[in-house]
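User: Last request for today: this protein with glutamic acid, please.
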Amino acid sequence: MVKFRFAPSPTGHLHAGNARLAVVNALAARAMGGTLLLRIDDTDRERSKPEYEAGIEQDLRWLGIGWDEMARQSDRMDRYAAAAERLKAAGLLYPCFESEEELAAKRALRAKRHLPPVYDRAMLSLTAEQRAAAEAGGKRPYFRFKLSDGAVAWNDLVLGRREVALGTVSDPVLIRADGTPLYTFTSVVDDLELGVTHVIRGEDHVTNTAVQIDLMRALEPRRAVPAFGHLPLISDVTGEKLSKRAGSVSVRQFRRDGIEAMALVSYLARLGSRRDPEPLTLEELAGTFDLGDFSRGAPRFDPKQLLALNRRVLHGLPFEAVAERLPEGCGAEFWMAVRGNLDLL
Ligand code: GLU
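Assistant: Here's the final one, the structure of the complex with glutamic acid:
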């Protein structure tokens, strides 16, 4: 049984980039007869808001995307604490005391020597006495995971074979000094424990994937790691990163502007793939869905194309599908007469 997941952080409204990942994961799950887990990544207490979480669920429902299972990271803190203890016992999670300033100074020194800005693991040789002295002085440790030597490779479902040399990456911080776990860690524990088989996310997570595969192998050496696929991030028509203007491309803004859910879903489902956008239901989109259709280049989000698709959706809608949203007194005859001329309802 395959399981995909969509894992938004409730730190803002659902925007086009994230909505696309929701659409792609939902379609992939349907196409393979699997399930979809909605995971709320709310470990960042300050930035996560219940109203954003509710908004994300509302937007997904409006898009017609359902989920078979839901998990909230803030409900699973005991699981992360247990996994952290296992890593500590294996000597793979070590306490660190360097401040941001000290780390910055080390990076600057390495830059002068033309070395990559990788953490030097100085704290690996910390003795119990040194640790006790630091804690007596009022410091509390944060914890880093000791990455393996060598490289991590995987066959990316979108990008093809990928390999990352772990020596080029700093040992990641998994637990903050206040004891709270970080995304890199919580995501791995969840993907393992909740039985996720496919992780499809943005290309910005490629380095994370190498680290997370290494972490998965440390936690569950006998378990197969999930398959990974990374979609190139969407840019706007000028080639700029789309997320910079997230406010103008939120799902709720499209809805307020009068874009039909079907148009947005159909557009996002085919964006960056070799297939042209056409107005289709989720069921129909799933029938033709193939991750192998996505290209390795960054697709451009073009509002004009979205509007053109919206027009096509409206032109095909029967009266019953819009009756509730029409002004009073507009009957079927009226709808059939005007629908061919509309850009937005
Ligand atoms: N909450 C993470 C994000 O939105 C999830 C990334 C992932 O899919 O692992 O970037």
